[in-house]
Structures are given as C-alpha cells and as structure tokens.
Amino acid sequence: RPEPKLEAEPPLPLDRQVGWAVVGLGDYAQGYVLPALARARRSRAVALVSGSAEKAKGVAARYGVKESALYGYDTMGRLAENDAVGVVYIVTANSTHAELTVKAFEAGKHVFCEKPMANSPAECQRMIDAAKAAGRKLMIAYRAHWEPHNLRAKEMLDAGELGQVWFATSDHHRPLDPALPRDQWRMKRSVAGGGSLVDIGIYSLNGLQWFFGESPNAVAASMQAPPDDPRFAEVENVFTAELAFPSGRRATISSGYMANKKRIDLWGDRLVATLDPATAYQGNRLVVSNAKRAEEILTKETSAAQFTGEIDHFSQAVTEGTEISTPGEMGLRDVRLIEALYRAARERRWLDLNPDMTVRGA
C-alpha cells in the first residue's frame, strides 16, 4: 500500500470541502480535532454532538458552527436531515463507539472513529457490518500514520537505510490523573475496555505492525496493578508483551500509567531509528544513531500534520473513492490482538495467533 502524502496546498473552496460533525467535545476534541478541522484543506466542522447543550453552544461560537447544527446524543438521528454533514467523527469513551457509529451510519453518514475502535471484536464487527449495510465508509483514527517523523522512519526502514531490522521496542506511558474528567472513565473497565494497554499501548501495537508490514503470529504478556492504588481497582497499570512475527522479527512493548514517555526504537544493524517522543500530539523527534554517531532527522512538516493528514485523507476517500489506509478492518485486527494479549497475560503463556489475530486453536 502506498504511503499517504501530506498536502501543503491551500484549502479547497468551501463548496468542495467535506462537512464533518464532531461527536464528543472533551479535551481532545477541543484541543486537537476542531483546530485540525479549521486548518484542513478538504474538511471543515459543520455540526457538533454533545451531552451538554451549553458546552456545544460555546464551542460552536468559536468555530463558526450554526446553532441549528447542534445535537445531543439522543438526537443524532437528525443528522440525516443535515445534508452539509458528510462525515461523523466519534471522539467519545471507548464503550460508546459502536452504538454511536451505528447511529451515524443509520443517518447516512460516513464515520471516522477514534482508537481503539471498540471494547470487543464483536462490537468492531458490528460497526463494519453497519458500514456495509449503509454503503458508507469507516476509518479508524490512527494519526501516527500521518505524523511526519513516523513517516520518515518508515521510509528509512523500507528503503534499507537502517540495515537489517530484526528487533523493535515500543514504550508508551503517561500519568493517570483521577482528578481529570478524561481519566475518570479510563479507570472503569466497562467503559475503557482495559487499562494502559488499551489506552496508549494501542500505539505500540498498531505502530509496530505498520512499520514491519506484518502482524505477530505469537505473543506473551504480563500485567501489573498495585493492590493499594484505587486507580487500578479495575484496570492494569503496567502491561508488557513480547511479539513474534512470521518474518522472524521480534518486538517488546510496554505501557503504563505512571511515567510520561512515548518512544519507539527500530534496531537496525546499520542504524537505530529512535522516535522520542514517537506519538505525542506535538514535538515528536527522530534520531538515527549507532555506536559512532547520532543524527537528528528533520522533517518539513511539524507533528500537527498528523491531525490534518488523517482527516483530509478520509475526506478524499469519501469524495474521490480512494483507498483508506486505516480502515475498520485494521481496528478489528488490533482489538483482537489486545484481547489475545490480555488472555496471554492471564494464562501466563505464549499464544499462537492466526493471521486475523484470533488465537489459534481457540
């Protein structure tokens, strides 16, 4: 599959841009999604969906969204009457993704959904089936595929500039703060679907498969939750795993809710490519090094390009019928892999995987 191109051209005329409805107006939507839609070339925000009418009105005023295009979760069906909306972006808690996605498809809209896609493979399949039934497109928001430093690292790997790469490490950690609304639901397994693996370990799982161009065929894992910390009464703190790939490559991953670090290392026999930070919202860096030298690789675009890149990629797919780089099937694959990793951790043994990431012999 060809790598996505980052566009630097000026915005298209308004009548050629795809209208997006943003569902969920939390910190991420307001801090990154809506600003990205305001900068995008092919896309713009034309509707908002929120559980708070007051919040929606305030956000709408800042981004020029008409008050007539504000909806509640219980009135999302009215999106069917709004021809200005082509795409619905689901930016809500994991446990709500499937239900809201199905509602959007029933309203006749295409859907762009945050990761992880859902809390179970069955919910993911329901979303994929709903897309097919509606004749609409479904994409999962794996933004790092459009992050310039990640793109450059993959380009170097694929071109052989790193030499033979048989091993990679990916570590994603961030503090979990129960005082923040965005973290309160992440402490509830029924809502989040799991702990640090689901929340930020997903970057490691998806990223390594993207870099290597293959999925693991065997996994082993372990997880830890401090018994005296109420934050982890339902979800894990630290999760670690080893992944074996059909090519013979190996990788280790870790995720956790204490430290603040997001790093990927691709260990080549000529050069090691280090992304640190690897998947931050801004300020990502790429350094290649060996025992004799280290060099920072600069990119023309900043990390902000990852947000507009994924959004405009989907708008282009909707209007021109181009291929989606991160489709719903990829989201399903990754949720199956997460499920397999949790099982491996519980059973404390290696599990063999089928190509679709289901457990072999299960």
From TrEMBL:
What Pfam families is this protein classified in?
GFO_IDH_MocA, GFO_IDH_MocA_C
Q: Which InterPro entries match?
A: Gfo/Idh/MocA-like_OxRdtase_C (IPR004104), Gfo/Idh/MocA-like_OxRdtase_N (IPR000683), Gfo/Idh/MocA_oxidoreduct (IPR051317), Glc-Fru_OxRdtase_bac (IPR008354), NAD(P)-bd_dom_sf (IPR036291)
**What are the GO MF terms of this UniProt record?**
nucleotide binding
The Gfo/Idh/MocA-like oxidoreductase C-terminal domain sits at: 154-353
Positions the record marks as coiled coil are none
* Gfo/Idh/MocA-like oxidoreductase N-terminal domain sequence ranges: 19-142
Name listed for the protein in its UniProt record:
Oxidoreductase
